[in-house]
Design brief:
Order of helices and strands: HEHEEE
Number of helices: 2
Number of strands: 4
Oligomer: single chain
CATH architecture: Beta Barrel
Strand content: 15-25%
Radius of gyration: 14 Å
Largest sheet: 4 strands, mixed
Strand order of the largest sheet: 1-3-2-4
Shape: globular
Length: 96
């Protein structure tokens, strides 16, 4: 299954990729104050401008860094019911 899934990716809109000097297949550093991760760049218009898409669900041990997108989550609770607020996290995406 891991071979079929391919590498962990971050998908960017073509305009965002171009403005950052990123191309498909390149490794990018995705980071914020909470953590950092190296992901393979995918480029598609499915990602709105200004949004970096990286699906969660990969096992920690499957990545080269032994980490997944959860390392970027600061653990902030929602404003209602103290639920998890993990559907959108601000990050910087840049070439390695």
């Amino acid at each position: 299954m891991a071979a079929r899934a391919g590498p962990a990716t971050v998908t960017l809109h073509p305009e965002d990729a171009a403005s950052r000097g990123l191309r498909a297949g390149q490794i990018a550093r995705v980071h914020n104050a909470t953590g950092a991760l190296e992901l393979t760049v995918a480029i598609a218009e499915v990602a709105p401008v200004g949004v970096a898409l990286s699906p969660k669900g990969r096992w920690l041990k499957s990545g080269r860094e032994r980490a997944n997108v959860n390392v970027l989550n600061p653990g902030t609770k929602s404003d209602m019911g103290e639920s998890a607020a993990v559907h959108g996290i601000e990050v910087t995406v840049e070439p390695m």
